[in-house]
Amino acid sequence: MPMNTECSIEVTLIRGVPDERFWKGICSHDFSYSTDASGTPAEKTHVRFAWNAQGLFVHAELEDSYIVAKSREDEQLHFETGDVFELFVKPPDEDYCWEMYATPYANKSTLFFPRDRSGMNVQNFLHDHSFRGLEVSARIEDRGWVADMFVPVEQLTALGGDWAEGAAWSVLCGRYNFNNDELDNPELSMWPAVSKTNYHLTNEYARLQLCT
Questions:
Q1: Dihedral sign for Cα atoms in the order 165, 45, 176, 17
Q2: Which of 13, 48, 50, 91 has its CA 20 to 30 A from that of 100?
Q3: Contact criterion met (CB below 8 Å) for 59 and 161
């Protein structure tokens, strides 16, 4: 599927591992509601990206006045049990993609959606693959939480795709923000703002251009 070239950003190359000082010097992208919804999220989210030969780095800062995380295990559908930051990544001109989670307590999950999904359900996407290289760290702060993700190049290019200067990839970041223990009415926000509150509109994902 074609990428959303109207939402295209250049991703900074880093030599080494990014730290807080590095992230503060990188342009952030603000979450919003989908374009068919009015208003702005009550609690803000900012996301930043960087890359090197080893893979993709993602840094998210999430305002959160009421943190909920009922599952403290990896490889779960964390959006069913609490607050979660989600990253969707796909290579250009391909129909397969990854959906990856980070929680406030640094739990993680990876779902893989293959080209042919006939007869499959969400449990297949969660369990029936070998992509377990996602790295997640997180910390809770006074106004919310911070999450860092690293997706290794071995995963990104396992089925093809170029990971080098000049390459372009498609991404979307989403958030489930619960404000009660009953897990009612989460605030759903995203970057980029797609046309509906649906994180799987892959032809509306942003274009990440890998540059120096």
A1: positive
A2: 13
A3: no
CA–CA gap between residue 42 and residue 160 (Å, rounded): 40
Angle value at C-alpha 156, between 45 and 162, nearest 5 degrees: 110
By CB atoms closer than 10 A (0-12, 13-18, 19+), residue 107 is buried
Sign of CA dihedral 72, 74, 78, 81: negative
Measured distance CA(42)–CA(189) in Å, rounded: 10
Assess contact for 192 and 4: CB atoms under 8 A: yes
Please write the tens of the pLDDT for every residue from 98-133: 999 999 999 999 999 999 999 999 999 999 999 999
* Residue found by looking up tokens 């009922």 in the block: 70
User: Looking at 67-107, which runs of residues are DSSP E strands?
Assistant: 84-90, 97-102
Q: Place 5 in a pLDDT band, splitting at 50, 70 and 90.
A: low
Predicted confidence at residue 48, as pLDDT, reads: 98
Q: Is the pLDDT of residue 40 over 80?
A: yes
Q: Which domains does the chain have, with CATH numbers?
A: 4-197+205-210 (2.60.40.1190)
Q: Cα separation of 77 and 38, whole Å?
A: 28
Give me the residue label for tokens 């498609």.
Answer: 170
Both tokens of 70, joined, read 């009922």
Evaluate whether 142 touches 64 at the Cβ level (below 8 Å): no
Structure confidence by residue, pLDDT tens digits, 167-210: 999 999 999 999 999 999 999 999 999 999 999 999 999 999 99
